[in-house]
TrEMBL record:
Keyword Hydrolase: no
Taxonomic placement: Bacteria, Bacillati, Actinomycetota, Actinomycetes, Kitasatosporales
Keywords: ATP-binding, Kinase, Nucleotide-binding, Serine/threonine-protein kinase, Transferase
All residue ranges annotated as the Histidine kinase/HSP90-like ATPase domain in the record: 2-119
Region annotated Disordered, chain positions: 1-27
MF terms (GO), sorted A to Z: ATP binding
Pfam families linked: HATPase_c_2
SUPFAM superfamilies documented for this protein: ATPase domain of HSP90 chaperone/DNA topoisomerase II/histidine kinase (SSF55874)
UniProt-recorded name of the protein: ATP-binding protein
Length: 122
């Protein structure tokens, strides 16, 4: 997908259609779509390169893993605790990885010569 806001929309739709094709329940499908949105948005904002790759993988035990790759030199922002809740409530960004942490059973990152992989398990 392109490393643009349009790519985020495409990735979200990809997650929804894949989960629906697998027969996943609506709530789980929407959780996958939200996780996809957050991870691909971070890749677009902090990534390098013209594209972002997004892949959902169904494991034999029924878990689903979402993987998002972005180009070399990509940084992954760290979840930041709110210093002042009143100020944090007004901020428009900075909650994506907190959402990922709250909705996934596990998540993490890996860096290699091809770029950065961020994954989340449902």
């Amino acid at each position: 997908m392109p490393c643009t806001p349009e790519g985020v929309r495409q990735a979200r739709q990809h997650a929804r259609s894949t989960m629906a094709r697998w027969g996943e329940p609506g709530e789980r499908t929407e959780t996958a779509a939200l996780l996809t949105t957050e991870l691909v948005t971070n890749a677009v904002l902090h990534g390098r390169g013209p594209e972002v790759r997004c892949h959902l993988r169904r494991r034999p035990e029924g878990d689903v893993q979402l993987r998002v790759w972005s180009g070399p030199g990509t940084t992954v922002p760290r979840p930041r605790p709110a210093r002042d809740q009143a100020v944090a409530d007004l901020e428009e960004t900075g909650r994506g990885l907190l959402i990922v942490d709250g909705l996934s059973s596990a998540w993490g990152t890996r860096t290699g010569s091809e770029g950065r992989l961020v994954w989340a398990d449902l």
